[in-house]
Task: structure prediction
Amino acid sequence: MKPIQVSCLLLFHQGKILATQRGAAMDLAGYWEFPGGKIEADESPEDSLVREINEELSIDIRICGALTPVLYAYPTKLIQLIPFLGTWQGGSLKLTEHAQSQWLGKEDLLSLNWASADLAIVQEVKAKWENLQGLI
Result:
C-alpha cells in the first residue's frame, strides 16, 4: 500500500498551539489533529500546507521549520504525516471543515482524543516544547 502524503501545521500563537477537531463529514470524525491535508501531485509539502491552511482556517501562515514525519497504518490506509512549525501571518481564523478548535499549552497537549497518526507528533512537541518556541 502506497502512503498518502499529508502535511500538517503546528501553529504556535501567543505561546500556545492550535488543535482542530475533525468534523462529522470527515474520516475519523471527532478526533483531534493538527490541521493540514493531502499533498497534491504537483505540490511540495510546504505549498500544500499553505493552501490547505488557507482553505481550512482562512488564514495565512509562515512556515518556520519541520518536525519528524510519521508513517502510520490505519486499517484502510497508510498515512505519511509531514509536520511543519508555523506562525499566523494574517486573516481571521474561521473553521471551514473542522467542528472546533482549541489553543493548548504544553500541559494540555495530552488532554484531547488525538487521531493516532498525530499522537507521535504530540509526543515530540511535548518533549521539545521549549526548543520549538525558539524556532518561531
User: Anything to note?
Assistant: The chain has a mean pLDDT of 94.
